[in-house]
Amino acid sequence: AESAVNASTLKPTGTLRVTASLSFSVHHIAPLLPEYTRRYPEVSVHVETANRYLDLIDNNIDVAIRTRESEPDSNITIRRLAETRRILAASPGYLGRAGTPRELADLARHALLVYTHANNPHELRFTRDGEARTIAIKGVLESNDGQVLRAAALDGLGILIQPTYILYDDIVAGRLVPVLDAWDLPRLTVNLAYPSRKHLSAKVRTFIDFMAEHFQKMEYERKWTGRFGY
Questions:
Q1: What are phi and psi of 100, to 5 degrees?
Q2: Please, are residues 70 and 146 in contact by the beta-carbon 8 Å criterion?
Q3: Over 50: is that where the pLDDT of 3 sits?
Q4: What distance separates the 2 farthest-apart alpha carbons in the chain?
Q5: Is residue 190 packed enough to be buried (19+ CB in 10 Å), middle (13-18) or exposed (0-12)?
Q6: 43-49 and 188-195 as β-strands: parallel, antiparallel, unpaired?
Q7: Domains (range + CATH), the chain
Q8: Neighbour count for residue 57 (Cβ, 10 Å)
Q9: Distance between CA atoms of 92 and 28, rounded to whole angstroms?
Q10: Is residue 230 very low, low, confident or very high in pLDDT (cuts 50, 70, 90)?
Q11: Average pLDDT over residues 206-210
């Protein structure tokens, strides 16, 4: 049996079960697995993608990546990875055809791509320099998966509302353009969540530390909370 001791004193072994949204898994777990498994070749990784929060104990999950501040279960421990803005963005092709919104009221004339698992998905609560505005929205496309919305936005269907951690590379590459970037939507915190235990297994400890190390090295919080200058 795997001994629950500090990872520095034991080579981690066994299957590590991780859950996260499909978007986070595609952008920020799968690309890291070659390096993690190179460091820890005795660990195999099972990634359970889910856009709803799975019960860690009932589903035998070792680590979850979630975007909420606290856990209702006191048996769950949280480790913060980064904060991220939520932004509006569209393809250059869409904005070339439909025009670029300059004011919040302009959104009523645009095709919006709505993530249905967001808190109050049909309401956007904006703030700017102490001013708060709330607008009701309806999507030309609505989905419970951010990758569906991202693909549609890249193909020019409309303006999507998603966390920067999903859209950052597309914006830097020019595939998507931020819209109304001077306004802020409520931010999200990306957390690692795992069952509380006196001693973490080596496979869990190494994965948690590996993710935290990578996020710090890549300066994701600085990138994901900044503005793009559009």
A1: -100, 125
A2: no
A3: no
A4: 61
A5: buried
A6: unpaired
A7: 7-83+189-225 (3.40.190.10), 86-179 (3.40.190.10)
A8: 11
A9: 25
A10: low
A11: 97
* pLDDT level of residue 10 (50, 70, 90 thresholds): low
pLDDT exceeds 60 at position 103:
yes
First CA to last CA distance, the chain:
55
d(CA 189, CA 6): 27
What the block records as the tokens of 225 is 């909370």
Copy the structure tokens of residue 22: 């499909």
What pLDDT is stored for residue 75 in this prediction?
84
pLDDT for the residue numbered 137: 97
Residue with tokens 């795992």: 194
Residue type at 167? L
Burial 73-84 (b: 16+ CB within 10 A, else e): eeebebeebbbb
CA 94/CA 111 separation, integer angstroms: 9
Using CA atoms, how far apart are residues 163 and 169, in angstroms rounded to an integer?
Answer: 12
Which residues have C-beta within 8 Å of that of residue 158, sequence separation ≥ 6? 90, 94, 110, 111, 112, 113, 140, 141, 152
Task: Give per-residue pLDDT as tens, 75-86.
Answer: 889 999 999 999
